[in-house]
């Protein structure tokens, strides 16, 4: 696993040493960030189900001003911190150890909360995509974008809460579903 582009291009990231974590492949991450490219520079990003932190680190490498990494597994939290340190990233991020929906509730209640421009959600493939969207719209900036990576066999809803699916990209067993608060495309 490596950083695909940007200021940290080529940096190798550590992989999990335990079962049950499925990092986004380099190829799918490249596809995702090719689509997101015009939105990433200067963006505030949430990396939900962060695992290794690869998606958020890619966003930082491409110019995101802040990334909030969210994962409820302590091992993942330590792996994210290790990968950030390995890349020399010492600011512009936060790591939250909590379930994603709970983290969104807590963030939204904070007086200092600023909505996210991009929310990246990569839940376990056995989790239905509509379930991970719960609460995400409440922390999304008005013209923001949510991307859910899910198993191709798990269809994503056309809409959820105030979100509308505006695009899907299928790659192997994976699908990227893009959501916005309006039908305005990418």
Give the class from helix and strand content and strand pairing: alpha/beta
Shape: globular
The tally of beta strands, per DSSP, is 8
Q: Tell me the strand order in the biggest sheet.
A: 3-2-1-4-5-8-7-6
Largest sheet: 8 strands, mixed
Assembly of the depicted chains: single chain
Uncertain runs are none
Individual helix count: 5
Describe this structure in words.
The chain is of the alpha/beta class and 186 residues long. It contains 5 helices and 8 strands; from the N terminus they run H-E-H-E-H-E-H-E-H-E-E-E-E. The protein has helices spanning 26-40, 54-61, 74-86, 100-109, 129-132, and strands at 44-48, 66-70, 93-96, 116-121, 140-151, 159-160, 163-171, 174-180. It has an 8-stranded mixed beta sheet with strand order 3-2-1-4-5-8-7-6. Helix 2 links the parallel strand 1 and strand 2. The two termini are 27 Å apart. The model has no long low-confidence stretch (mean pLDDT 91).
Task: Please summarize what this structure is.
Helices cover about 25% and strands about 25% of the residues. By secondary structure, the chain is of the alpha/beta class.
